[in-house]
Amino acid sequence: MRLFISLDIPKEVKDNLYRIQKYIPSNLAKIKWVPKKNLHITLKFLGEVDETLLAEIKKRLSNIQFKSDKLKFKEIDFFSSKKNPGVIKLSFFDSEKTLELQRKIDEAFIDIFPAGQKFVLHLTLGRVKIIKKKNELNDKIKSFDFFNKEFVVESFGLVESIPLKGTHIYKAIEIFET
Fold first, then answer.
1. pTM for the complete prediction?
2. Could you please report the per-residue DSSP string of 20-75?
3. Per-residue pLDDT tens for 1-20?
4. Catalytic site includes residue 122
5. Of 2, 58, 74, 122, which residue is the catalytic one?
6. Per the CATH hierarchy, to which homologous superfamily does domain 2-177 belong?
7. Is 168 a catalytic residue?
């Protein structure tokens, strides 16, 4: 089973983010958007996990203390690399409580899931497959004003990613409240 640990996003925030996805015209780029129901903030990707570890993973997560937090939007921008046109992401101002939660998760699993890349607090909106009009796409993305808007996070979850016909279904295995 393919697992990750994430912060869920409130429905009203997902609704607003979905409007952004619909606002970007397809003549600017070919983008594979993250479905509205799958929008989340990944705290740790565990990857393929043997089911025999599931009880231990849940136990370790249930021992992590977490206080509710306000996440504040910073901007919509891109992750890019030479081989990949990029990922459209929503960045947040660093939040000490959320960063501390992520550190605690890394520490709880250091023996079975070593820390990977440096954690960057973000939400993936879509993956750019082909850029047709780079400057116009950049301008359109930068035109969204999320600066300083915020929402409250009161839980994190252990989620299974189930591949299905070119997409993924996310199934919450367990939710951990503040």
1. 0.88
2. HHHHS-TTTEEEEEPPGGG-EEEEEEEEE--GGGHHHHHHHHHT-----EEEEEEE
3. 999 999 989 999 999 888 88
4. yes
5. 122
6. Cyclic phosphodiesterase (3.90.1140.10)
7. no
